[in-house]
Amino acid sequence: MELVMGVVWAAVAVVAWAWKTLDWVWWTPRRLDRELRRQGLRGNQYRLLHGDLKENAQLSDEAKSRPLPLHCHDIAPRVLPLFHNAIKDHGKISITWLGPYPRVILAEPELVKEVLSNKFGHFVKPSTTPLAKFLVQGLASYDGEKWVKHRRIINPAFHFEKLKQMLPAFSTPCGELIRRWNKMIPDEGSQELNVFQSSKASQKISSPEPHSVAAMKKGEEYLNS
């Protein structure tokens, strides 16, 4: 009798696990897909389990196999080929699939502004594990009233007049680095520079000019006031 009951409970556990798995990889994604399309969003059809992951890997490999021209700044097809194709094929409000999870792409500035402002609490941060919540806490992970409170605290630090006082602290070393690069390039033609090594060397050998230090101190005083 105990053996029979053990088999029955094992069968129930297997059926429950299979049901939950099927709901995770098929029914819930299909339901979300229908609801998103009903609201006017377009994108690739959901594909079982992997979604757009295989296509993303293939597009990334193809993009990396082609060298980027020296003076080309069109990096979106190379860095984010899946998102680039989704926007091109389905519009600035489209969906992609990260496995069984839909991702909504917003390329309309006004909609992005509305989501980031989050005035009404309709857009919440993605849920994270308790460990991630313990290790990473801050404005980017807060929601609701807690987000509003911390955003109000740091808002004065980004006042335009305060940021203007800090401008020399950034512009002076950048200008010095650009002048150093200009000396390395011949008067005619072009030359490829190792920006990482140049920036690293600049940080080691250059010291801020007196007015830069004063501007930095003034900026710190403004931020602490």
From TrEMBL:
InterPro entries: Cyt_P450, Cyt_P450_sf, Cytochrome_P450_Monooxygen. Its main location: membrane. GO terms for molecular function: heme binding; iron ion binding; monooxygenase activity; oxidoreductase activity, acting on paired donors, with incorporation or reduction of molecular oxygen. GO terms for cellular component: membrane. Pfam families: p450. Keywords: Heme, Iron, Membrane, Metal-binding, Monooxygenase, Oxidoreductase, Transmembrane, Transmembrane helix. Residues 197-225 are annotated as: Disordered. It is found in: Membrane. Residues 197-206 have a biased composition (Polar residues). Belongs to the cytochrome P450 family. This is Uncharacterized protein. It comes from Dioscorea zingiberensis.
